[in-house]
Every structure is written in C-alpha cells, then in structure tokens.
Amino acid sequence: MSTAPEDLTGRARLRDAAIECFAAGGFGESLRAIAARAGVSAGLVRHHFGSKEMLRAECDATVLARYTKLKTESLNSDPKQLFAQFPASDEAGILLVYILRSVREGGAAGREFIEQMVAEALGFTRDAVARGLVVPSRDEEARVRYLTYQGIGALVVRLAMNPDTPLDDFQAVMGQFYTDSMLPTLELYTEGLFTDRTYLEQYLEYVAATNNPPAGLAGEPLSL
What we know:
Layout: H1 10-25, H2 31-38, H3 43-49, H4 52-75, H5 79-85, H6 90-105, H7 107-130, H8 140-161, H9 170-191, H10 198-208
C-alpha cells in the first residue's frame, strides 16, 4: 500500500496485508495467508484483531478512507499529473478491486460500502459545483447515486464478461479500467450526448404535470 512496510506497526502491516489478500483472492482468504503476506505468525492476527470479522471491519474502514483521499487528491490535481500517475497506481488498483469484491459479495457490508461511496461522492460533487468544476443538478443526490451505481455496475458487468481477468494484478486491472472507460466517460461528462435539450425539456414538462415535480438547482421549485 502507500506506506513503506518498515514504517508500519505490526497491526498496520497485517491490516494492509489483509486488504491486499482480500482484493487478490476474495474475502474467504485465511488468516494464515494474511499473516504469511505480512511476514508474521498467524497468532498475531488474532492478537491484534481478535477475529477475522474485526479485521475485515478495519480493512473496510481503511479502504474507504483511502478511497476518499484519492478522490480528494484527484479533484485537486492538474489533469496532466493525474492521468500520468493513476493508470500505474498499484494502490488505486487494490482499492478498486477490494470495493468491487465487497459489492459483488452482497450483504450488509456491500450495501454499506455503496451507501458510504454515495455519501462521499455527494460531498465531492457539492464541493466541485461550488468551485465551478461541475455543473449543478436539479437533484444532486439522485445524480451522484446514479453515477456511483453506473460506475460499479459497469465493472461488475465487465468482469462477468471476462471471468479470466487476473484480479491480483492490480496495476493491470487499473490500467484496463482506464483504457476502457476514460475516453467515453470524459466525452459524456464534458460534451454530453444529445445535440439539443428536447428530451430533457419534454421530461421536465411531463414531471411538472404530476404531483411530485423535481427540485430546482438549490432545492427551489423547478421553473420550466
């Protein structure tokens, strides 16, 4: 991960080894495999964390914190610097695969991960709107939730169509992700898709005729 192994405590080394093991092999990886990756005895895992469930909980929290940090750095980075660094980022690949596995696993942990990602993305987006980087939405939370679902869903479908993808090669996974998605994503985000506003305006007129019109840009009733 991002911190040199010699700079980490034994607990932190085990946590980071577990994140990598879970990302590479799934959440069924044994405590023995995690300890071997960290270069310690298996008994130290239970000494530091008590149980695999407690270890997983700390890994989840750490991955979310690192994901938040990377997202914040990306918004504050020059695009040239961002594109030069991210495709080769081993850490970004680890986080991406870990999150993807959490979602594919389902259950409470996967749902919580998505909800946390939506909440984090909503904060990022509101900040980006305030800074003039992103256009505002009539329903900011709905847009953020849709984009989060879309991004994760696209990865799930891609891996379902390519089941032999080696998820333990984190840099390769990240590089392929950018190769497949960056151009169409930036085109859609920057240039849009439709050549005029007809579909949007017709939809807004349709919704306004119901009893539940969408909110305006700042939560005000929408003016067509």
